[in-house]
Structures are given as structure tokens and as C-alpha cells.
Amino acid sequence: MYNKLLNEACSSLYNEASMISREYLANTYLASSSFPSLRHYFTSFQEITDVRILVTRPDSEIIIDSDKIYNCEGKYLNDYDDTLLSNQTVSETDLNHMLPEKAVAIIYPVTFSMEIIAYAVLTKPLQPIKNAAIRYIDTIVLCYIIFTSLLMLVMFYLYVQTALPIKTMTRAAKKYVAGQFNYPMGRITGNDQSELAGAIKYMAAKMSDMNDYQRKFIANVSHDFRSPLTSIKGYTQAMLDGTIPPEMQNKYLDIILFETERLTKLTSSLLTLNQFENGGIPIDISVFDINYEIKRCSETFEQRCTDKQISIELTFDTKKLMVKADISKIEQVIQNLLDNAIKFSYNNSVIEIRTTERNRKIFVSIKDHGIGIPKDSINKVWDRFYKTDLSRGKDKKGTGLGLSITKEIIEAHGENINVISTEGAGTEFIFSLPSVSS
């Protein structure tokens, strides 16, 4: 910076020396009568620009000096350095002790008729140039400090807004993976970070629910498998030990067969649900009459309805309602819903099955007038193994998987199933299927 400012000062002094030589010195022939006016002009110039002007004869005698305080008129510049006037620029000089401080000097020869008639020597102190360089550097350093401080603030802000929340969320995610689902996430700022933290907390809640579900699943499977296995083992052991006489073995063999069928049904239901979850069961879509399938499925429950003196009333919008679905899966849905309706209906009651068409959808309703579902259980009936207390005590054949399978089948078709129930008054299941225009 100092060298840059020094070069600029030398260039400016050279231009000024050229102008002074051209305008004031070469045309006056340096007549003695013009010295006072030139001296006055040069002194004013020095006061304004801090540039000292010396005019010397070819022999280095100073004839004009713009400085009033350190005036050197009559002295010779070459007294101590006879090569001084042969230079164009001299740095770090005091002109043989004629200047009060180090300066840069420009020496410009004044010519007339191809001869040198004088020299114009312009000097400028170096200390102001050094001070200006220091000021520039101080300004740059100050700007750098300010910029660095601002950059540090920006980096700190970015750290608080990004790195710190990510560390917090990473730590929380590790805790959730380790099973500490109640670990607090902490306060997260920023929209994106808050959304990500919310997603992690939601994932943790789902993991907690899944963990609870797995525990309940294992407990339910263990319970539902243990009961029939205990019966099978007990009766088989009793027959082998001779505790059960041969004439009574047929009775207990029937019980063993019944429990074996329970295990088969439970295993089959679990496999079906697992295949639905993994997308392993293909849906074979065909067009069929839903009314006909409802009639056919209802006939299979004739004996059970007769035993409980239950009647089934069918109400159809039209004689035929064609739907597009997997006929075997829909038969399973109807059978599951009818099985539930008969199981929880009172004796001497009616089960109503209705089909209606609205907005290119076929809606199937199966409604019983039985014990109903408690209000706090209405949203749990789709859960695996879920049974109300009434169900578990009333019917030991149920696996608690029928409604779960039903919901999976309907959703695999891209449709919906809903339940409406009042405890003590009955329950209605309604599901939809895509209609096929005739």
C-alpha cells in the first residue's frame, strides 16, 4: 500500500513539475525580475498541496524556494552530492540536509532552445504518505475484523439453526432406536428443522405403538395358541395314561379335533394378514353380481340362524348390482361380517343386509340388533386380536382377526369400511365397492 501511494505521489509530482516548467519557467527565461512573483505563487502552491518547489540553475544554485521557514535560496544542491540533479526521482532524501524531514523528490530539467536553463525540484514529505498507507491498512483491517465478526455471527447462527438441531435430533433418534421413547426432543427452532423434529417424534410415537403392539401380539398369540395346545396335550396324555376309558375317547377326540381346527384357523388368519401387509396377496378382479353372492353366503349360515332363531332380511336396490372386485375375497368379507352379526345378536332377532348404489359406488350394509360395541372400543375393533370382554367370554371360537382381515381386504380394493354401533342396540358395518355400469 505504501509503495502504491508513493508511486501515485511521484506521478503526481512529475505532472506538476512538467506543468510548472511549461507554464512558468521556460517562458520567463528566468529573469530576476520574475522571481518574486514566482516565489509568491510557489509558496501558495506549497501551502495548498504540501509540495515544496525549488528552482535551481544548471550549476545547482537554488534561485527560488517556496518554503518561507527553511528557505535555501543561494545554496547549492550538489555540495554534498554532485549526481543529485542527474536523477529523475529520489526517495528517502533530505536534499543534503536542506529538508526538515525525509521526502520524495522529482527533478525536472527546464529546457530552452534545446539547452537546460534550470531544474525544477518538487518534494513531498514521506511521513504523510506513510500515514495514509497506515490509515488504508487500518481501514482494511477494521473491515476485515468487522467482516470476520459478522461471519462468525452468521456461522454461529447457522450452527444454532442447523448443526445444533441436527445434533439434538440425532441424539434423540438414537435414544428412540434404543427404546427410550419418552426421551424429550428439546426445543427446535426453524420451520424445516421443526418439521423434521416433528417427523422424528411422530416416528418415535409409531415405534412406541409398534413396540406395544408387538408385546400385545406375542401375548395374544401365546394365549390363543396355549389354550388349545393345553387341551390337546391334556386329553392326549389322559388317553395314553388310561385316565379316559376307551368308550369315552371319541368324545375327547372330537374336542382335540375342534381345538386343532382352531389352531389351523388362527394360523391361516395370521398368514393372510401377513401377506396383506407385505403386498403378497394379489387381488383377482372380476365382475360379478354382489346381490347373488350375499344370498349365497347367507345360505351357509342357515343352521346357525335356526339355532338362535335369527332371521336374515335382504333388501336390494335392484335385482342385480354388478361390482368389480375379487369375488373370493369379498365372500370372505361377507362371511366375516355375517359371522360377527350372528355371534353377537340376541335370540329371536333380525339381521338386515342392504345394498344401494350411489355415485357409481355399491354400498353393502350388514346390521344386527345385538349387544353392540362399547363406545370406548368402537375404534379398536379393527385391531388384531382385539376382543371386547363380552366377546372373549361369550365365544371361544373367535380369533380376534376377522375384522382386521376384512379391513385389509376392503382397503386392498381401494375402498372403505365403517362401523356404527350403539351398546345394547346393535351394530352396522358398511363397506363400498366400485360399481359396473350395465
The CATH architecture assignment of the largest domain turns out to be 2-Layer Sandwich
> According to CATH, what is the topology of the largest domain?
Heat Shock Protein 90
CATH classification class of the largest domain: Alpha Beta
Strand/helix succession? HHEEEEEHHHEHHEEHEEHHEE
What fraction strand?
Answer: 15-25%
Low-confidence stretches: 389-396
Backbone CA Rg: 54 Å
Number of strands: 12
**Secondary structure category:** alpha+beta
Give the CATH H-level superfamily of the largest domain.
Answer: Histidine kinase-like ATPase, C-terminal domain
- The number of domains is 3
| Major sheet | 5 strands, antiparallel
Mean of residue pLDDT values: 83
Strand order of the largest sheet: 2-1-5-4-3
Number of helices: 10
The residue fraction in helices comes out at 40-55%
Task: List the defining traits of the structure above.
438 residues; alpha+beta; Helix Hairpins; 3 domains; five-stranded antiparallel β-sheet; five-stranded mixed β-sheet
Fold and architecture overview:
The chain is α+β, with helices and mostly antiparallel strands and 438 residues long. The strands form three sheets. A five-stranded antiparallel sheet has the order 2-1-5-4-3. Strand 4 (103-112) and strand 5 (115-125) form a beta hairpin. It has helices at residues 2-25, 35-49, 126-177, 191-241, 249-277, 290-299, 302-308, 327-343, 389-394, 402-412, and strands at residues 52-56, 62-65, 89-93, 103-112, 115-125, 286-289, 311-316, 322-325, 350-358, 361-368, 417-422, 426-434. It has three domains: 2-131, Beta-Lactamase, CATH 3.30.450; 191-277, Helix Hairpins, CATH 1.10.287.130; 286-434, Heat Shock Protein 90 (2-Layer Sandwich), CATH 3.30.565. The chain is rod-shaped, with a radius of gyration of 54 Å. The model is unreliable at 389-396 (pLDDT under 50). Helix 1 packs antiparallel against helix 3 and helix 8 (327-343) runs antiparallel to helix 10 (402-412).
